[in-house]
Amino acid sequence: MHIPENCKGWVTGNRGSELRRVEQATGTFMFMALDRHGEERLLIFSANGGSKTADGGRMHAERLINEMVQEKLRGDSRGRSRSDSLEMPERSNSRRRSPSRRRDSRSRTASQPG
User: Where are stretches of biased composition, namely Basic residues (predicted)?
Assistant: First the structure.
């Protein structure tokens, strides 16, 4: 399926996290790939084709992705980002980066004789 260029990062999520979330909810396997014209498309695979209203399967995954695209397009028109949105119960921003473990090389060299 076609994903607008300005929505690809929103749909895939950090390191594919949003695609994995939709895969879990729908029993599908998804990834971005180039079509024969060199355009990037979202491919959705499942033995279950799904239906327009039922949960699970390819059609359910497509509905969820379309909702994400519409959410992003509405947010862009209002100048909002994902972190500004108030209505996103299924998305989790609970994973935050840990502080860097890298130490300042100046402090190590200053304390070592030599």
Answer: 94-105
Q: For 25-72, what is each residue's pLDDT tens digit?
A: 999 999 999 999 999 999 999 999 999 899 999 999 999 999 999 999
> Does this model's pTM top 0.85?
no
Residue 95 domain-assigned (yes or no): no
DSSP-assigned beta bridge partners for residue 43: 31
Question: Could you tell me the sign of the dihedral formed by the alpha carbons of 106, 109, 111, 114, in that order?
Answer: negative
Report H helices in 27-102: 58-78
- Beta-carbon contacts of 33 under 8 Å, excluding residues fewer than 6 positions away, are 40, 41, 43
2, 34 Cβ separation under 8 angstroms: no
